[in-house]
Amino acid sequence: MKIIFAIIFCVKITFVFSQQMRIGVLTALNVNSIEIKSNYGAYNIICDSSFVSSIPINSIIEVSVMNSKISVEFIGSRYTNLSKIFLVPKKKSSILSLFPNSIKSSKYTYKDTIEITVQDGYLKLVNLVNMNDYLCGVVEAEGGRGRHIEYYKVQSLISRTYALKNKNRHHKEGYHLCDNQHCQVYRNHSIDNSNIKKAVESTSNEVIVDINGSLVTTFFSSNCGGQTCDPSYVWNNSVDYLSTFKDTFCCNTKQSNWIKRISKKRWSSFLSDQYGVLEEDYGDLIYNFRQIDRKAFYIHPSLGIPLRDLRKEFKLKSTFFSSRIDGNDVLLNGYGFGHGVGLCQEGAMKMADLGYDYKQIASYYYSNIRIINFFKNRLIKQKKILH
Ligand SMILES: [Zn+2]
Ligand SMILES: [Zn+2]
Fold it and tell me: What is the pTM of this model?
């Protein structure tokens, strides 16, 4: 019994004194059963608040849903009718691999504690993870491997700011953030963690705030195509620290250009069905569009065809394109990849390679911002309130 209290006490103490995140993992899958293997370091398993056993390294635990409750099987023992289980690492370096729904090889590997319950007939898995460990996984998933450390620092900064600003996004589901693009992609602990770990730790607690001291919404996309996009073109509302400007750093990078063909028939059908813009009224004008500077609408605002609608319908890489007739097709010549609002990842990578530091990169893409220590700032604010 003493061991149980010791484990629960340790988990609670860690919660209070470090930034612990509750991240819903495997949220895009309906998980009925899962095999969990301890890759490095042993784990303790706690079932419904009772310490059950220590799981040695390389052992496999099978967890499944049975009559809306959890069933657990390992090392020849079976436990049923459980409401909640915790897998708690015995060492900081311990790592678990998750094999949902009998998949053979797993890309899902996590540090820290895993909590499992049942929700709507499926297993709900939550990784109770230290903020910096979480960020290492996010920075690797969102920024890729083998980048310059200053780029990883700016990605850490925007991912931390996002996480703290959106901590209540999944309040109803019982965790802070999910592991998909809806929040931030988080598939595993960082595998390539030399520069990523250094970047996350050296920017610990740092966040981006606007002139009022509020956390900014750190929009970013893969490549802005040479001009960042005004947020109002994408979401109808403006943001003080985000504007459209020419980005000279992302030209001639991986995602800077694209081409796509769409049949004239499909193009004209969409314009007539959705917006009443008919070929018989406008002729070839409905296919020809030139976009030197980013625009919000196709051809002319009076036609009421938002470029974001075309991007969604035709699965275009960006809204930054020009179009013309080519045979029976509409030929689109486009720039960039993503919505183009905020930080341009390929531009930021280029800036880092050219010697700019992470603060200069952040200030290039977000205007009138400050980079501050989140916790120091909160303490100062609290002291001011008390006085
Ligand atoms: Zn989410
Ligand atoms: Zn760019």
Answer: 0.86
